[in-house]
Design goal:
This protein has 139 residues and is mainly α. Helices cover 87% and strands 0% of the residues. It has one domain. 11% of the residues are buried.
């Protein structure tokens, strides 16, 4: 603090301007660095949200394919529908397992894990329905 007082007491305008200029440059640098760090964090979060959005879109399309083929098989007992169901359900199980990997307490990750568990439950019940249809259990 003494150093700044001594510098400000100097009588030349040039030194005073130099000190004020340096203080201004330091403040602008600090604000710029803070802005850069915050925008970098924001970009990482946006990238994560985009990746999750794309994954959820693909997941939704696969669930639709599984559901269509399951309904087709249960209503017509056509073997192509069963083969398609089995293929898409394996793909869906793989995607659900990928979503369920890793420990995280982030709200978005927890929601994805919940979706993965719901998919597993849906596929388990669908498999029971197919087994019942094969066993001619109408109920």
């Amino acid at each position: 603090m003494r150093f700044f007082d001594k510098l400000l007491r100097l009588n030349t305008i040039r030194r005073k301007m130099l000190v004020y200029f340096m203080i201004t440059i330091i403040l602008i640098s600090i604000v710029s660095i803070f802005t850069f760090i915050m925008s970098s964090k924001f970009m990482k979060k946006m990238e994560s949200m985009f990746v999750d959005g794309v994954a959820l879109t693909e997941l939704s399309e696969t669930v639709t394919k599984v559901n269509v083929n399951l309904n087709n098989y249960l209503s017509t007992k056509h073997s192509d529908s069963l083969n398609n169901y089995l293929r898409y359900s394996d793909e869906l199980r793989g995607k659900a397992m990928d979503m369920n990997k890793g420990l995280s307490y982030d709200n978005n990750r927890l929601l994805l894990k919940d979706i993965a568990f719901m998919i597993e439950t849906y596929l388990t019940e669908a498999d029971k329905g197919i087994a019942a249809k094969r066993g001619r259990n109408i109920d």
